[in-house]
Amino acid sequence: MTKVTSNALNRAFLHSSCRINAALEMIAGRWKPLILIHISENQNRFSLLKQAMPGISDQALGKQLKELEADRLVTKEIIPAIPVRVDYSLTEKGAALLPILQALAEWKDL
Amino acid sequence: MTKVTSNALNRAFLHSSCRINAALEMIAGRWKPLILIHISENQNRFSLLKQAMPGISDQALGKQLKELEADRLVTKEIIPAIPVRVDYSLTEKGAALLPILQALAEWKDL
């Protein structure tokens, strides 16, 4: 095995801390972890999410959902019913975050 | 086993999301994950941390270290040398965060 130079280790190390910061930014804020958890619990429509999170405004919820979609953590399916229905679901990446969020919750109590 | 009512589940669920947000707040910001990682890599003095993170000001590093100490993620040991020396180290709780940070870095790349 070639000896990994300390520079290479350093680069890998810095690269991972940038990824950590980018990941934290993706889920930062009061609502995003909560929205992901609610969608995973099948509260997967705007109205259901509003009910589950009485403190959030329509505007804030709409913005968070758009950002979560842009970051590929959530997908939106438009159901051609009357009135039209929009169902949200977690992507694979969104679902993969849940155990990390659970680990953070448990870590908080240490 | 007594049937866990949906209210109890809901309370446990909301309790864990508050803990997630509290945990995220503790480590949010551009520098805290990086400082914890550097201290874990034995860059455990102010001067060493400054060298390792050229972009951070003295003031910002001092503030972050104080907050990390207040949140019990880092401890400070004053070594009676001349000049006096201050060594930082991760608490058990600080060290327990590192695998979660690593998981977040890997999750980011999914």
Short description:
The structure is a homodimer of 110-residue chains. With 110 residues, chain A is mainly alpha-helical.
Classify the helix fraction of chain A into a percent range.
Answer: 55-70%
Unreliable runs of chain A: none
Largest interface: A-B, 32 and 32 residues
CATH architecture of chain A: Orthogonal Bundle
Enumerate the strands of the largest sheet of chain A in spatial order, edge to edge or round the barrel.
Answer: 1-2
Number of strands of chain A: 2
Quaternary organisation: homodimer
Tally of individual domains of chain A: 1
Question: Cα-atom Rg of chain A, whole angstroms?
Answer: 18 Å
What is the element layout, followed by pairings?
The structure is a homodimer of 110-residue chains.
Chain A lengths: L5 H22 L4 H9 L5 H7 L5 H13 L3 E6 L5 E6 L1 H17 L2
Antiparallel strand pairs in A: 1-2
Helix pairs in contact in A: 2-5
InterPro entries (chains A, B): HTH_HxlR, WH-like_DNA-bd_sf, WH_DNA-bd_sf
Pfam families (chains A, B): HxlR
Organism (chains A, B): Chitinophaga solisilvae
